[in-house]
Design goal:
CATH class: Alpha Beta
Order of helices and strands: EHEEEHHEEEHEHE
Number of domains: 1
CATH architecture: 3-Layer(aba) Sandwich
Largest sheet: 6 strands, parallel
Strand order of the largest sheet: 1-9-8-5-2-3
Helix content: 10-25%
Organism: Vararia minispora EC-137
Protein name: 6-phosphogluconolactonase
Number of strands: 9
Strand content: 15-25%
Shape: globular
Distance between the termini: 33 Å
Length: 256
């Protein structure tokens, strides 16, 4: 069993600095991925995360035609619903860049009434993208971008929920989310922890208590603390100084 990767914490004095650094980080990950296998596989979560990616808009270094984008979790709603992570990402970022629509992998909205079929169909999307190219038991994303809630949840993996123990499925469904809407699908920990890179983004004073618990007291077992990519994967946190105010974990200077 491989050991988990070291956690690297970057903390910035402003959101603008964080967003610029994250853009540089993504471009480096993109280059390494394209050099290795001519594509860049990315998964993103919802919430405030897409807003942190707007520094990529108009950036000539982004090879949008090589991107294949999945959603680390999605609310079981139509794609034009205000709760949709797809809609948020489209409105914030993807509608403003030349990313081919066929390479943005949304849920099959004809299956909204059957959570198990919906999750299975999205898992098949991943299998189609990864199975012929990778021999691993789980897909190996080049980059997964996540946020964390005040309760320490990430994607749609919530504290104390039975999905935290899921070891086999790539995509799981949840119909009792403690945060509305209750019905969602989500990547499982095995998928997240097989990524080449996972980067969390967390900003604002409202995250300072939970970041302390995640980074300084991982033994509490919050879902975000359970994101530990297996070696040779890497785990990064991009946070602002307000969010990291209580964190004792060592910071690393970000270098372009």
């Amino acid at each position: 069993m491989h050991s988990a990767a070291e956690t690297i914490l970057y903390s910035f004095s402003s959101s603008a600095e964080l967003n610029d650094a994250l853009a540089h980080f993504i471009l480096k990950a993109q280059k390494e991925a394209i050099d290795k296998h001519s594509r860049f596989t990315v998964a993103i979560s919802g919430g405030s995360l897409p807003k942190t990616l707007t520094a990529l808009i108009g950036n000539p270094g982004v090879k949008w035609d090589k991107w294949h984008v999945f959603f680390a979790d999605e609310r079981v709603v139509p794609l034009d619903h205000s709760d949709s992570n797809y809609l948020l990402a489209m409105n914030t970022l993807f509608s403003k860049v030349p990313l081919p629509s066929s390479q943005i992998h949304a849920i099959d909205t004809t299956l909204l009434d059957d959570l198990e079929e919906l999750a299975d169909a999205y898992e098949k999307e991943l299998i189609h993208e990864f199975a012929q190219k990778d021999s691993a038991r789980f897909p190996v994303f080049d980059l997964i971008l996540l946020g964390t809630g005040p309760d320490g949840h990430t994607a749609s993996l919530f504290p104390g929920h039975e999905l935290l123990a899921e070891e086999d499925r790539w995509i799981a469904y949840i119909e009792d989310s403690p945060k509305p809407p209750p019905k969602r699908i989500t990547f499982t920990f095995p998928v997240i922890n097989h990524a080449a890179r996972v980067a969390f983004v967390a900003t604002g004073e409202g995250k300072k208590e939970v970041l302390h618990d995640i980074l300084d007291e991982p033994e509490k077992g919050l879902p975000s603390s359970r994101v530990r990519p297996a070696w040779p994967g890497h785990l990064y946190w991009f946070v602002d100084d307000a969010a990291s105010a209580l964190v004792r974990y060592k910071r690393t200077e970000f270098k372009v």
